[in-house]
Specification:
The complex is a heterotrimer of chains A (299), B (134) and C (131).
Chain A (H helix, E strand, L loop, with lengths): L1 H25 L8 H22 L10 H17 L3 H9 L2 H12 L3 H44 L4 E4 L2 E7 L4 H18 L3 E8 L5 H17 L2 E5 L3 H9 L8 E2 L3 H11 L4 E3 L8 E4 L9
Helix pairs in contact in A: 1-2, 1-5, 2-3, 3-6, 4-6, 5-6, 7-8
Chain B lengths: L5 E6 L2 H17 L4 H20 L4 E8 L6 E8 L7 H4 L15 H6 L2 E6 L5 E8 L1
Antiparallel strand pairs in B: 1-2, 2-3, 3-5, 4-5
Helix pairs in contact in B: 1-2
Chain C lengths: L5 E4 L2 E5 L6 H18 L3 E5 L8 H16 L3 E5 L3 H10 L7 E3 L2 H9 L17
Parallel strand pairs in C: 2-3, 3-4, 4-5
Antiparallel strand pairs in C: 1-2
Helix pairs in contact in C: 1-2
The chains are: A alpha/beta (299), B alpha+beta (134), C alpha/beta (131).
Chain lengths: 299, 134, 131
């Protein structure tokens, strides 16, 4: 174990410059990273590895002594992933340390073949583990980017619209799956609180199919809203959907539904005690368009 | 990607249940779970911790961060040396309760997490492990 | 022992839960509410849970119990300010809080209890009130 640490320390300068030389040949990507930056990363990584091998051995890279190296590797990988390097390029960065390192081992130990073989083997295992760490970190960074983009897409596709004081509308376009319903639910409920809206119209004109799962999702949203003190109305129920719902035996007893968004809006206005009054310029007076509990008729 | 981090808390009285909730909340916040996911996990922890206390006559909860590569999650393990559950399947059904009121059994907690496993038998105590992925 | 304060506003009892309650505190609250209703003849109970980040089945039962007991004593209970994450979790948990009426805010709750105009009128940007 200490063989490896010693060899690296004694030959650090040479290993580093050979490593950098090799990298310039293979993984240039000067479009993404400057020479100076690459060299700096090599130096930093080599010192970290040297220190870690000396203090904690090379068997287990998950121990505390390797933390600094791990974090540095993760950082480099994630940032290269974001910059557009490929996974191979990132792993090659670590793996190309093998040649200079093995050369150093041969120079120092060439006379004692068994010890040399053992040390080379230890070194190769260590570098493989470190390279795999970079691959994991790389993948994690890419996935995070993808899921963030997915999230943004989801949020954009279901805006919550304020129709009137205390009345919201949520027009849903496209299929409702589990992930999407979560986002839809959270968005709607947060807007309910933020705007203090007691009524929320969920319009499903743009939802192609309603199966039991979708119905369940909708019901969960409605139940959650009700628990908070708000009421939901489902609108945009097309005739085919109405038939499907009945055929599937989905129970919508507790749910208020309307065929059209305008009907749902009129209902919400009514339920919130409002009246819409048309004002005529002529002496015929104004006409009540819809009557709520506090309606007054004029004219 | 990190060293194994794990913490165990006792569940001996109702204050421990509050502490358990807060501890889970703390871990979930550090791992940057979304608010809804946090709420679900902390609520499940509260249910299971209380079960261990009320039905299991006290026990412990262990929190551990799990996952590698792209996935990160929190694993909670509840253990008690109480009388054990005679019919686990029944206990997992909604509406099941041995106490009074709106007892929901374990079925409710199961829905709040991604992975749920339970081991229990009369006289052998109960061990429940749940995982919520980020 | 610390207690959750129960405030009196005329015939209304106002309770704001801001702490992470342990079981004894919750049971104490149930006792306090029923005692106060009896003592002051309150007809309305408003429980503000807008600061509660976790409502598990125990707290849910407590709320349902308070509502039921108050009703027997002639008072109506409204729970206000439930956070979205809490509502979503309760639905997943399967808790429906039977017998518990809810409202979005204290004003909305008071309107439910005492009729329109009981709360403060918040200015409406779209409407014009008729005289």
């Amino acid at each position: 174990m200490s063989d490896l640490a010693d060899i690296i320390s004694r030959n650090e300068q040479q290993i580093r410059s050979e490593w950098i030389g090799d990298l310039h040949q293979t993984v240039q990507r000067s479009d993404l990273m400057s020479k100076a930056e690459m060299e700096e990363q090599c130096s930093a990584l080599l010192s970290a590895v040297t220190e870690a091998v000396r203090s904690s051995g090379s068997e287990d890279v998950m121990t505390a002594g390797w933390r600094q190296t791990r974090e540095y590797l993760e950082e480099i990988s994630a940032s290269r992933a974001r910059q557009g390097f490929t996974a191979t390029e990132v792993a090659t960065f670590v793996l190309s340390l093998k040649r200079p390192l093995f050369s150093a081992i041969r120079r120092d130990m060439g006379k004692t073949q068994d010890r040399m073989f053992d040390t080379i083997w230890t070194a190769t295992e260590l570098l493989d583990r470190l390279a795999l760490l970079t691959t994991d970190a790389y993948l994690a960074a890419r996935e995070e980017l993808i899921s963030r983009q997915q999230q943004e897409l989801l949020e954009l596709s279901t805006p919550v619209v304020k129709l009137w004081e205390g009345i919201l509308a949520l027009p849903i376009i496209g299929t409702l799956d589990s992930a999407r319903t979560q986002v839809v639910m959270e968005n709607l409920l947060q807007t309910v609180v933020a705007t203090n809206s007691k009524y929320a119209i969920i319009d499903i004109t743009g939802v192609p199919t309603v199966d039991t799962l979708v119905a369940q999702h909708l019901l969960k949203t409605i139940t959650a809203a009700r628990l908070m003190g708000a009421e939901c109305i489902i609108s945009g129920v097309r005739p085919q959907i109405a038939q499907t719902i009945v055929h599937l035996g989905i129970n919508l007893e507790d749910v208020t539904t309307r065929a059209r968004l305008s009907d749902a809006f009129a209902l919400a206005l009514q339920m919130s005690g409002r009246t819409v009054v048309r004002q005529n310029a002529s002496a015929a007076g104004s006409k009540v368009v819809l009557a709520g509990p506090l309606a007054k008729q004029e004219g | 990607m990190s060293e194994t981090k794990r913490e165990t808390l006792p569940l001996k009285n109702s204050n421990d249940v509050v502490l358990a909730r807060q501890k889970v909340r703390q871990w979930a916040t550090e791992l940057r779970f979304t608010l809804v996911d946090q709420t679900k996990l902390v609520t499940a922890a509260s249910e299971l911790a209380r079960n261990a206390l009320d039905h299991g006559k006290g026990g412990s909860m262990t929190i551990e961060q799990v996952g590698a590569g792209g996935r990160v999650g929190l694993k909670l393990h509840f253990e008690d040396h109480g009388p054990g559950i005679p019919d686990v399947e029944l206990a997992l059904k909604d509406g099941f309760t041995t106490g009074s009121g709106m007892g929901l059994g374990l079925g409710g907690s199961k829905r709040l997490v991604n992975e749920f496993s339970i081991e229990s038998a009369p006289g052998k105590g109960t061990r429940i492990t749940v995982i919520r992925w980020k | 022992m610390e207690r959750i304060p129960v405030l009196r506003m005329g015939t209304l009892l106002l309770i704001t839960i801001q702490v992470d309650m342990h079981d004894k505190l919750a049971l104490q609250l149930q006792d306090d509410v029923t005692s106060r209703i009896a003592e002051w003849g309150s007809t309305g109970v408003l429980i503000d849970i807008s600061s509660l980040e976790i409502v598990d089945s125990f707290i849910g039962r407590m709320l349902a119990n308070i509502a039921a007991m108050s009703r027997v004593l002639g008072a109506e209970t409204i729970v206000v300010g439930m956070q979205p994450a809490v509502a979503i979790t309760l639905v997943e948990l399967g808790m429906s809080l039977p017998g518990v009426r809810t409202a979005l805010s204290v004003e909305a709750g008071m309107e439910l209890l005492y009729g329109a105009g009981a709360g403060f009128r918040t200015g409406s940007e779209h409407e014009r009130d008729e005289a």
